[in-house]
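This part of the workshop introduces the protein records we will be handling. Backbone structure tokens are a discrete shorthand for how the chain folds in space. Once this layout is familiar, the rest of the handout is easier to follow. The record below serves as our worked example for the rest of this section.
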Amino acid sequence: MSSDKTRPRARRASIETEEERAWVGFYQRVGHDPVIATEVLAQLESDPEMKRAHLALYLGCKESLRRHKTRVVRNQRIGQFVRQVCHELFVRPWRSLQSGLRDGSDLAVECLPEVTKEAAVAKIGRLNREAKPATARTAFGQHAPELSPAPTEIQSAPNTTAKRATA
């Protein structure tokens, strides 16, 4: 009979030691893992007697969750700062470059110098419109060396009159 009484006590003792080991494990892991802290906290809040028996574990869970929350908020602020810096360094200059290139073509055209006729070409045009080309050539010849007309101009003149006569 003595052997029957010792067996249930031995089982209870081993269950109690395993239970104590589990609680010790919770005490150790609660500070590092917010998921375990949440689960243990929910279990302790559901049973007021367990909460009183393991008050240090309850407070450790609360502290672990509070630290986790501050860590998450801090990481969000850091992430927001990094996104803003990257936006300012990479995205904004790229968009400015794109809009500058889009508007730059209009600006480049405006920056080009205006097309003006050379003074000699303008003078020849005015002199050809005057009364007699011969007198105009002599007047022009006093200011500049005499220029002979290009062969293409001589050939093109009769062709244009012939074309006009046929039309």
